[in-house]
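[agent] plan:
  1. take the single chain provided in the ticket
  2. run structure prediction with default settings
  3. attach C-alpha cells to the ticket
  4. add a short note for the reviewer (M.T.)
[agent] executing step 1
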Amino acid sequence: MATAVSQDGVGEHRAADRISRRLRAASVESLALGMGALAFAAVAAVAFFVFAGHSLSIAGAGSVGQFAAIACCLVALVAYGGGRVATWSIPWFSRPREHRSRLTAAVEVFDSLAISIAHAVVVLLLWTVLSDVLARSFQDAQVFAIPATLLVGTAAAVSAYYVFLSAADMNPLLLSAVLAIFLVVGALTSMLTASNPHWWKQNLSVLGISDDWSAATFDITVIVGGILVTAIARYATDSGSPERRPTRGELQVRTALVIVGAMLACVGLFPVDRFFLVHNTAATGMAVVFCVLAIGIRWMMPHLPHTFYVLGWVFIGVIVLVALFFAVGYYNLTAVELVAAVLIFSWIIVFLRITEATGSDAARRGELDTPPTGAPPNAGDSPRGN
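[agent] step 2 finished; step 3 output follows
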C-alpha cells in the first residue's frame, strides 16, 4: 500500500514538472517573439530613413544585403545578451539562482560574451552569403526602398528570435552545434573570398595573411573559435551541481582545453607572415596538447564511455598517418592542417556531447532514486516494512 502511494506521489511530481517545463517553454517563446518584434521595429525604422528615395542592389557595397548583415550582427549581440540576462534575472526562467563568487560570475560573463560574438559573426556571414546568392540569382535587379525596409526588418526579427532562444536554452549540446556552424561558415567564407585562388597550394595559414575581407574573416574565425573552446572547457567539465566540486581529472581536462583554445586564438592573433615562430609554435603546441589530452582523458575522466577513448586514439592515428604522407610528399601541408583541424574540433564537439549525455544520465538516475519532497517512503524504507 505504501509503495502504491509513493508511486502515485512520484507520478504526480513528474506530471507537475512536465507542466512547469511546458509553461516555461511557452514563456521563453513569448519573450523571443517580443525580442524579434523589437528588432523588426528598430531596424526597419533606421532602414526607412537610410533607404528613403533610393533603389538598392541586392549585394555589394551600399546594398540591402550589406545593411541587413551589419544590422543583424548588432541585433544578434543584443539578443544574445538579453537572453543570458533573462536566465540570470528572471526566477522562473531557469533553475534557482546559485551563489556565485565574483570570479565565477566574471568567467560566465566572459564565456557569454565569446558565444555572443560567435552568434553575431555567424549571422553576419550567413546574411552576407545569402545576399550574394540572391544577387547572382537576380542579375542586375534593384530593390525599392519600402520592400528593402521590410526585408531587412524581417531579417533582423528572424535573427533576434533564434539568437534569443539560443541564449535562453544554451547548454553543451547547443554549444557544440554553435561551434561547428561557426567554424564551418567562417572557414568556407574565407576560402571562397580568398584573393589568391591557389592558396591551398601553400598552407591553411595563408588565408590570414592578406589585408582583404578574406583574411579578416579567417583571423576572426580562428580567434573567436579559440575563445569558444575556452568556454567549452568550463561547460564540459562543470560538475553540474553546486554541492560537488570538479574532480582533479576534470580540472586537468579543463586546463588542457583552455590551453588549446588560447593557442588557437594565438594562431589568428599572430599571422604567419609577420610572426612566423609564434604562429607555428602555437599551431604545433595545440596539436601536441590535443594528443596528450586524447590519450590521458581515459585516466582523467574514467567515467566516460570506452568508445570515446578509442575514438581519440583513432583520430591521433589518422593525424600521424597524414603527417607521414606529407613527409614523403604525397600530401601538401594544407591537407595535413585541414585533416588535423577537422579531427581536433570534431573530438572537442563529441567530447562536449558525451559529457552532457553522461551528466544527464547521472542526474536522471539521481531523480529516479530520490523520491519527491513530501512523498511517503517506500515500504522497503520503513524499519518494519508494512
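[agent] step 4 note for reviewer: The mean pLDDT is 78.
[agent] ticket updated
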